[in-house]
Q: What sequence folds into this?
């Protein structure tokens, strides 16, 4: 026998806040990405700052051609993050593609869906981070092949950085890049850092380098910037979070406006 339960209307609608969280960061990441979302939950997300993710199609191997194929997906990827609502910043989380597609082209594609919102790429964020640290001479470590690394070397050189040493690991699958053990990242970082460099940049949002950046700094005595550390730092500062968090690395002690 069914008992009819009385359902009582509350009598008024609830009061709504302007936003569930004060600040909102959008992430456009590769369908194959294992690392960015985890790093941002660890370094960026809080009870005042939400991180909202959209994944776009990507097919390995990491080549210029495959990286360029993501460009048409950027507008739709941005549009799917909280449709018709403003964000405080939006990140396209692929370093090698940012070089190949170009920071300005990425910004234009995202602004087609989310006009006026600050767009963060790992490359532009890394440049800003290296300048905030006062670095002019750098060493670079990438997980890519020589062919994929070459445009990145040119990118930093064209922006006025002196590259003392550029090391690449020869991988072509971003899922394998995500599986590089943290201890291996430490070992390769020590080898990649030239003594005369002001800082080390470790490229690729798939590589778990942000987790060990502070350890590398402790062992080498030099600042370390990684792709995800740089974009996380940029997003926090754009959202007004200026807290110094040296446990994440020297970059997290710097103002966004330094350098």
A:
């Amino acid at each position: 026998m069914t008992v009819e339960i009385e359902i009582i209307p509350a009598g008024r609608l609830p009061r709504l806040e302007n936003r569930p969280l004060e600040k909102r960061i959008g992430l456009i990441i590769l369908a194959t990405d294992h690392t960015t979302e985890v790093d941002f939950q660890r370094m960026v997300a809080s009870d005042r700052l939400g991180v909202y993710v959209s994944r776009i199609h990507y097919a390995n191997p990491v080549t210029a051609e495959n990286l360029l194929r993501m460009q048409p997906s950027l507008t739709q990827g941005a549009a799917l993050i909280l449709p018709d609502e403003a964000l405080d910043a939006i990140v396209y989380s692929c370093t090698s593609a940012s070089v190949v597609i170009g920071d300005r082209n990425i910004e234009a594609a995202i602004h087609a869906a989310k006009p006026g919102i600050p767009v963060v790429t790992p490359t532009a964020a890394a440049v800003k981070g290296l300048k905030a640290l006062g670095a002019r001479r750098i060493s670079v470590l990438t997980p890519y092949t020589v062919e994929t690394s070459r445009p990145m070397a040119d990118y930093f050189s064209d922006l006025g950085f002196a590259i003392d040493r550029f090391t690449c690991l020869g991988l072509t699958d971003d899922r394998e890049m995500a599986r590089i053990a943290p201890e291996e990242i430490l070992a390769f970082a020590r080898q990649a850092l030239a003594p005369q460099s002001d800082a080390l940049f470790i490229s690729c949002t798939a590589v778990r380098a942000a987790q060990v950046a502070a350890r590398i700094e402790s062992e080498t005595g030099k600042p370390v910037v990684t792709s995800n550390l740089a974009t996380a730092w940029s997003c926090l500062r754009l959202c007004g979070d200026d807290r110094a968090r040296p446990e994440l690395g020297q970059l997290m002690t710097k103002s966004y406006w330094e350098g």
